[in-house]
Amino acid sequence: MKLHPIAYPLIGLALILLFNAFFTPGFYALELRDGRLYGSLIDVLNRATPVLLLSIGMTLVIATKGVDLSVGAVMAIAGAVAALLVTDKVSFLSVSHSVLLVVLIALVVATFAGVFNGVLVGKVGIQPIVATLILMVAGRGVAQLLTGGQNVTFNNPALERLGTGSAFGLPMPFVIFIVVFVLIAVFVRKTALGLFIEATGSNAEAARLAGVASDKMKVAVYAVSGLVAGIAGVIACADIRAADANNAGLYMELDAILAVAVGGTSLSGGRFSLLGSVVGAVLMQALTTTILTRGVSPHATLVAKALIIVAVILLQSPEFRASFARRKHDPARA
Amino acid sequence: MALLEMAGVSKAFPGVLALDSVSFSVDRGEIRALMGENGAGKSTLIKVLTGVYASGSGTVLLDGVSIAPRSPAHAQELGVSTVYQEVNLVPNLSVAENVCLGYEPRTFGKINWRKVNERARRAMSRLNIDIDVTRSLTDFSTAVQQLVAIARAVDREAKVLVLDEPTSSLDKIEVERLFTLMRKLRGDGMAIVFVTHFLEQVYSVADSVTVLRNGVKVGDWAVTELPRQKLVAQMLGRDLDEVPHVDHREAIGTDVLVTVESLGRKNAMEPISFDVRRGETLGLSGLLGSGRTETMKMLSGANPADSGVISVSGIGTRGSRLRPRSPRDSIRLGIGLCPEDRKSEGVCPGLSVSENLLLVLQARRGWLRVIRKKQADKIVSEQIERLRITTPDTRRPIENLSGGNQQKVLLCRWLVAEPTLLLLDEPTRGIDVGNKLEIRKLITDLAKKGMSFVFSSAELEEVVNTCDRVVVLRDRRKVGELKGAEVTEQNVMARIAEGEA
Q1: Which domains does chain B have, with CATH numbers?
Q2: What is the mean pLDDT of residues A92-102?
Q3: CB nearest to A198's CB, from B326, B351, B365
Q4: Hey, are the CB atoms on B350 and A271 less than 8 Å from each other?
Q5: What's the pLDDT score for residue B27?
Q6: For chain B: N or C, fewer Cβ within 10 A?
Q7: Residue A207: its chain B contacts at CB < 8 A?
């Protein structure tokens, strides 16, 4: 049986939802209050949003045979920049009157961080894991330096709405994610960029000889990764009305990588699936929420999560399925 | 009885008999060159001797005693040391540590560093190499690193020293220094096996030659009794008197398309000049390592040249004279490269046949002007029909195709982008005879329609029967150019074999 690659994480997600339908009372209950939906399902989407955003950029980076470990730190930087600007703590840049400008500057800074990674990988030729490790460590340091090690709190309804508001009945962060996802998906799939990215990840030298600007592709995907990390960072800080340089986005790069892997994009580069990563990220959050609501001992939560993820990843590995099928049909071994 | 005697050595890999009952010997105080083209079995033989391939049939006698090296380390203990093309030492250790690695002199179980350095210094001075042995190996050039590797081998009391293409990355002076060292070791009674592609070097340092071809030993000769031409003929397996009948197009226009002026790259290719006319197939011929691939890579911008320029006629006046710095530079001039190594530089595995085929065209159009699906399908099916590519489904990954069909897809990749000059580096390598002929026929047909090609092949017969003119390369420089009726295997071989003209 050969299924579309995205089928495996979808089956996983369906199983979790099915499980909840029987065993978690009220999981599917939705309630409309003040023009906004509430319920476990909405909660899953809302909580998954930061990883969802990161996984878009991470998918593109991984498609070029790279990895971006710095996204968590970039989230912290973007949050710090936004919080400082909105509280007018930057003496030479007084933009607190315009939240749009605040967000824009934070995103420019985040994108610049991505470009820094991209240049190290694409132009200088440093291994992605090393290149982005630099910013993973240094970036959080920069964020801490910016905030002076303190949480920078603010009180700005317009900015807060990005984290806690709603639109079309859905949480604002999730709506922002949908918009970003559609824009980026169209951008790479309706142009030839997707092909160039896949060619670069599949065989960078072949792509270069064919006239693909593989080095520029690499810079571009890290820039996108920085941008979406910036968006996630601004949302995260708007959500808690503060920039927390120590904890914002902490370890989230690992969740994003996992979401991409669960979603069926090979970590060795080439073919990628943005939608797969979305399913992967939602699956992981649904899993976490389920485990928590099932009252599993908190100490066992991570292990339970890991076991289920291992199962999903094995299922979508062609090699594993092949060996499984062989065993079944091999009478000598039966 | 010679110091090292290998007899009846065979080694089979799935589907290939890499060595077929080969005998090989080298004696004390002898430098024996081991020669052969790609796939001749040189490296397999060396690997059997040095224990990389433990299981091969046949006998290996060292000093009259039968040995069976299980690993390179074991071979070294037995007295057979090898220095590879790529230096296999530990770069960030000191020279002395590298020389003594694994055999460090100890005092009460502790490494005696004074003795380590002393011993390394002695080993180096024995070879007349004057360097500071306490410095890190990375401080020195590849050439010196190679000398250190040899010093290490000599320190191990090696009886047989195998040098596997040690000169590939060395310049002339460094090669001379290596030769001086080899002569000295020969004087000390060591048996040296010298694997190389360079004819010059065989004649300047070796005493005797063994030639392999397709896993079979062709023969042993003393260097003095084997003229160059005969050596080349033995390696290529062609009789010098054989004159194939070819219909060469004498009437190639004088319409020069691309002029290459002194294009060179340090340590890779001496400056080379030639031109390519419109509608011409220009052959590049020479032995392995003679600079065919290097020339094409410079021309295509893949490995940019560091001197010289190329000019392309008919592409405006501005920017038509330049030195390409990247493949994109060359593609803009209408020059494309179909590389030699299909796997590492050609196909994008995982991507579909169709995507692979359209990659160059799409890259040329840029990221915004996407080839519409209908148009893409049309182009792909046209090409598949034209080259008779066998594929069940063009949306399937390209690696499901056979090598020959993959090669055809890569050719199409360029043909649909309509370059004015296509560089084909061994386009017929590793594919079956039928596909070889089809590809050559395609080239000839397209050339008649006005497209230009630079073509290389390890098989001389193919070059001679496909090309209108042939540029002959030896030891990374151009040594001749043949046109029209002069293009014969005999002439090409003669040029390859000639001494310094």
Answers
A1: 4-226 (3.40.50.300), 256-497 (3.40.50.300)
A2: 83
A3: B351
A4: yes
A5: 92
A6: C
A7: 348, 359
